[in-house]
Automatic annotation (TrEMBL):
Gene Ontology terms for molecular function: GTP binding; GTPase activity; kinase activity
Keyword Zinc-finger annotated: no
Keywords: Chaperone, GTP-binding, Hydrolase, Kinase, Nucleotide-binding, Transferase
Organism: Natronorubrum texcoconense
Protein's name in the database: LAO/AO transport system kinase
Gene3D superfamilies: P-loop containing nucleotide triphosphate hydrolases (3.40.50.300)
Record-stated family: Belongs to the SIMIBI class G3E GTPase family. ArgK/MeaB subfamily.
Length: 357
């Protein structure tokens, strides 16, 4: 039995050290990681994956800590993936924020892993999705992905999550309008954290107004999944509309004071409501299908890119090709076509053989 097979067996047997090693292998793109991840798929699909994002200073780490603690009190196992900004010295994750996640230290059923952002959007998204699969296969019932801030990186990552909570600090005002066309569109649940501070009521009202203006989804739809605002305080209860179709998800606003664990139970209830909605409406299956489609596209892009890089090297490297363009001997479009022709020919040959077979 190979070392990777041993590692997989140990992970499936519930050994946290094996889980840590598998995630390291995934994050570092170590030799054999793809075969390892391929084996994980057959053991996934049971975990509830929650994304926590929002502007810096909104209290994400503290809230994640309290969520993990509350889930553990309920007897559920938890995995946390914290996406950290890269260290400028080592490229690794900066672990300062993890200090605030102290409530579950020593509890082996809460596995916390920091992953470095490293400034690579697609690569991080893929690594995060693969790390989620490792935790899912391990048997973690709740997997929480916490991101560093508000931006495209976070939007890409939380697509791995089934439910996305966006934290908004009180008194955000103009910040809410600034974020409107971006990260707020992906929210399944809004969380006004630090709700004991001045301005929280106004922030809740501004969010509610924005949701109402958004109609069938904030910013005109196209968010994390379909949203339909009925009342910001009503739970989704599986009702159907006049045409007999399942009504969309009501986007709730939950007020929390994470430092005191206030509102955490309410937030967990909304997560549970959303999970029920996804399953009952059929959106969860659609969500998973879309996620796998994007994974296939990403892997194809990575592999084709690697193949083309090899062909570029065979042709003397991209600098030589660029120099030939500079001298007027050719152009980028012609070079791209010449490099892709063998790939297209190979695909055509495979298709022909498949039809004849």
């Amino acid at each position: 039995m190979s070392s990777d097979e041993d590692l997989l067996e140990a992970l499936l047997a519930g050994e946290h050290r094996a889980l840590a090693r598998v995630i390291s292998k995934i994050e570092n793109r170590s030799p054999g990681y793809r075969d390892l991840v391929s084996e994980l798929y057959a053991h996934t699909g049971e975990a509830d994956v929650i994304g926590i994002t929002g502007s810096p200073g909104a209290g994400k780490s503290t809230l994640v800590d309290k969520l993990a603690e509350t889930y553990r009190d309920r007897g559920e196992t938890v995995g946390v993936i914290a996406i950290d900004p890269s260290s400028p010295f080592t490229g690794g994750a900066v672990l300062g924020d993890r200090i605030r996640m102290a409530s579950t230290v020593g509890d082996m059923d809460v596995f916390v892993r920091s992953m470095s952002a490293r400034g690579t959007l697609g690569g991080l998204s893929t690594a995060t999705a693969d790390a989620v699969k490792a935790m899912d296969a391990f048997g973690k019932e709740k997997i929480i992905i916490e991101t560093v801030g508000a931006g495209q990186n976070e939007i890409d990552i939380v697509r791995t999550a089934d439910t996305v909570a966006v934290l908004v600090p009180p008194g955000s005002g103009d910040d809410i309008q600034t974020l409107k066309a971006g990260i707020l569109e992906i929210a399944d649940v809004f969380v006004v954290n630090k709700a004991d501070r001045p301005g929280s009521d106004r922030t809740v009202q501004e969010l509610r107004d924005m949701i109402q203006l958004g109609g069938g989804g904030i910013g005109g739809g196209g968010g994390h999944h379909s949203q339909e605002v009925i009342d910001a305080h009503d739970d989704w209860d599986g009702e159907t509309d006049d045409e007999g179709e399942t009504a969309g998800w009501t986007t709730p606003i939950v007020e929390t004071v994470a430092t005191k664990a206030e509102g955490v139970d309410d937030l967990i209830s909304e997560f549970a409501n959303h999970r029920t909605y996804l399953v009952d409406s059929g959106e969860h299956a659609e969500q998973v299908r879309g996620r796998y489609a994007e994974e296939i596209r990403t892997l194809l892009r990575e592999d084709v890119h690697a193949l083309l890089e090899d062909r570029l090297a065979d042709r003397g490297g991209i600098d030589d090709l660029a120099e030939s363009v500079r001298r007027g001997e050719t152009d980028p479009y012609s070079i791209a076509g010449e490099l892709l022709d063998p790939v297209e020919d190979c695909l055509d040959e495979l298709e022909t053989n498949g039809e004849n077979g």
